[in-house]
Amino acid sequence: MLNVSRLRVLREVISQGSFSAAAAALSYTQSAVSQAIATLEAETGATLVERDRRGIRPTAAGAALVEHVDGIIGRLEAAEADLDAILGLRGGRLMMASFPTAGATLMPPAIARFRAEHPEVELSLVEGEPEEIAPRLAAGELDLALLFEFRDGGERLTGGLKQIDLVADPMHVALPPDHRLAGHAVLSLEDLRDEAWVQTSARSPCARHVVRCCRAAGFEPVVSFESDDYQTVQGLVASGVGVALIPELALRSGTREDIVVRELHPESPQRRVVVATRRGKGVLPAAQSMVTTLREIVAERRRAPTP
Predict the structure, then answer these.
(1) What angle, 0 to 180 degrees and rounded to 10, lies between the N-to-C axes of helices 107-117 and 285-303?
(2) For labeling, which of 89, 180, 204, 236 is most exposed (least CB within 10 Å)?
(3) In this structure, are strands 93-98 and 122-127 parallel, antiparallel, or unpaired?
(4) Burial level of 77, CB count in 10 A (0-12/13-18/19+)?
(5) In sequence order, which residues have a C-beta less than 8 Å from that of residue 188 and are 6 or more positions away?
(6) How far is CA 290 from CA 169, 219, 276, 287, in A?
């Protein structure tokens, strides 16, 4: 493999026509220039320059090599410029993913703020469930992801990933306004043992956690309807066909006026929302900056007065 520094010296020697002029242009000593040319000739197995009464001139081999040097160095300089831009948040691309409720509530203000601060970084966002997103992040297809896990849920998705806690997302009970329990300020899961349930599809982590919580409370929930769209879940609750546990983030993105939302006692089931990146030194500065932005957004929401 040819050494780029020595190729630069060869180009300068041929351009300047002497070792001394090349040394002055490169801020090298003349002996360093001579040594670089001698080493390059040893590496290539060819004489690259010759001296005559007019100074230094390239041999056929030297002239052929120099024809490639400008292109090689130009490509390297362009690569260095691109890398500097990425490291300095003046370019590059940040590929992100989020589960839907965080994608509707946390990501929009974070993306808007990041874009205002770093307009030259290209952003992309895809949505999916955590069990779909986490493997893509670990495989390097994504740079950053918003995920959630349930405490004591037994489903660890962030193993091998660097994660930072963002917010606890409690699940609240949604009831029809004329439900017999709608007048209670706080409910327990045991109060709901005889109800029909509306929940996300059985394969989803939220549905599995709801079932776990109901079983821990001593009953098996009777699921009458399923939908992975929380607006649809709310509509079914409003129509009186069942009750549901809905995460707070889903309610923040839009709560219907024709349902009643109540907290659970002694504690609502909650999922832990995290922002995850890959481990190691390869995390993009843009990803690190987005983590900071997301934490700022969450902190500001905590300080904001409850409507």
Answers:
(1) 130
(2) 180
(3) parallel
(4) exposed
(5) 217, 264, 265, 266
(6) 20, 42, 11, 5
Say yes or no: 27 and 147 in one domain.
no
Pair 151, 281: CB distance under 8 Å: no
Output 74 or 171, whichever has higher pLDDT.
Answer: 171
Looking at the fold, whether 137 and 152 belong to one and the same domain comes out as: yes
List the domain range (segments joined by +) for residue 61: 4-87
Q: What is the mean pLDDT of the chain?
A: 87
Q: What integer is the mean pLDDT of 2-28?
A: 85
pTM for the model: 0.69
- Give residue for tokens 């390297």: 76
pLDDT, tens digit, 9 for 90 and up, residues 133-171: 999 998 888 999 999 988 765 556 656 788 899 999 999
Instruction: Note whether 133 and 83 are same-domain residues.
Output: no
- Cβ–Cβ < 8 Å for 37, 9: yes
